[in-house]
Design brief:
Elements lengths: L1 H16 L2 H6 L7 H10 L4 E6 L2 E6 L2 E7 L5 E8 L5 H10 L4 E4 L5 E7 L7 H25 L10 E3 L4
Antiparallel strand pairs: 1-2, 2-3, 3-4, 4-6, 4-7, 5-6
Length: 166
Amino acid sequence: MYRLLSIVIVFVAVVGLNSPAHAQDKLGKDYSDEQLSGMLKEQGFRNVEVVEAGVLRVTIDGLEYYLFVYEDGDLQLWFGLTNYQVTIGDMNEWNRTRRLSRAYIDDENDPILEGDLLANAGYSAKQLYEWVSVFDGIARAFRDFVAERDNINTNESKRQTRQPGS
């Protein structure tokens, strides 16, 4: 009886450890662009594409985020706006009062938001999903914050998101 129970426990443990739910919790950091894209799609993000080596575009409800993959496995999400006029003081206020992101004005005077996922011990598909989801919420709050502090533009049709380097 105990032998049969032992076999059942071992079987359940082995099957459970190889289940999709366990795969979501598996830590890694050396993911290819295609693997990251697949992980995000499996987690429910439908609009993910590899733009170039080390750069993915994730579109959620019309907002585009760029995911940069670094050689050490670290990830960075990037969100840019254009045709808004904000000040360094506005960006300082954002950085002083918000967590989990940083904002700055780039060389083209556009407000930019970034967030990092450090891969020191690795990350799972679930952690990747949660990080992107949190950044999505932060980026939407950032867009609203920037719009409130916009000093020049009143025509919302000019306002838009932008791509890195454009």
